[in-house]
Amino acid sequence: MATTIVHATLTVDGFLADQDGGVDWMFGRPSAPEDDAVVEKVLERIGAVVGGANRTQTIEDGEIPYGGMLTVPVYLMTHTAHEPIERDGVTYTFVVDDIAQAVEEAKRAAGDGWVSLLGGSISRQCLQLGLVDELHLDVAPVLLGQGISLFAGLGRHIELERLETSAYASETHHRYRVLRESI
């Protein structure tokens, strides 16, 4: 059975992107082979992705999940029905307004792999619905002060169990199990 994960790179103050959605702060940072190895381990296990889309804008604007490093099925949440699109060996399936259905379809596609949830809104919705098994957070040593938050507006207290933590040149890497009991 697939494991559903929130996989995100964020700042120390919890932002995924600046206010305009920019992620330039992620690039050009010092790195070590160990940092790359942590990310590669995650990428090797991902069997499907669930993210958000504004119609087909995500694909048309070149905002391809993981920068095209993965060729796994991608399920995009949308408010308007659209036929699947195949591009560069990746099938993008559009799911209208039912995130639980998107996660279930992605889990079937992923088999024993991981379903990666991308984006703050998608991640929060899945956490609220109890659909997330683990958090994989790569935290960069930078403060943006404002931007798009991963967890703001979650509205729930969720306990986590630390599974793994490592720190190298560019980031600290945190892996947590989401405990089903919340207070």
Residue-averaged pLDDT: 89
Count of DSSP H/I helices: 4
The Rg value, from CA coordinates, equals: 16 Å
Euclidean distance between termini CA atoms: 27 Å
- What is the share of helical residues? 10-25%
What fraction of the residues are assigned to beta strands by DSSP?
25-35%
Strand arrangement within the widest β-sheet reads 5-6-4-3-7-1-8-11-10
The main sheet comes to:
9 strands, mixed
The rough form would be described as globular
Residue ranges: pLDDT <50 for 5 or more in a row? none
- Structural class of the secondary structure composition? alpha/beta
- Based on DSSP secondary structure assignment, what is the total number of beta strands? 11
Query: Regarding quaternary structure, how should these chains be classified?
Result: single chain
Element string (H = helix, E = strand): EEHEHEEEHEHEEEE
Which features would summarize this protein structure in a list?
183 residues; 9-stranded mixed sheet; alpha/beta; two-stranded antiparallel ribbon; 34% strand; 4 helices
Q: What's this model, at a glance?
A:
The chain is α/β, with parallel strands linked by helices and 183 residues long. The chain is built from 4 helices and 11 strands; from the N terminus they run E-E-H-E-H-E-E-E-H-E-H-E-E-E-E.
What does this structure look like?
The protein has helices at residues 33-45, 57-60, 99-110, 120-128, and strands at 3-11, 15-17, 46-52, 74-78, 85-87, 90-96, 114-117, 134-140, 148-149, 160-167, 172-178. The protein is α/β, with parallel strands linked by helices and 183 residues long. A nine-stranded mixed beta sheet has the order 5-6-4-3-7-1-8-11-10, sandwiched between helices. Strands 2-9 form a two-stranded antiparallel sheet. Strand 3, helix 2 and strand 4 (74-78) form a beta-alpha-beta unit.
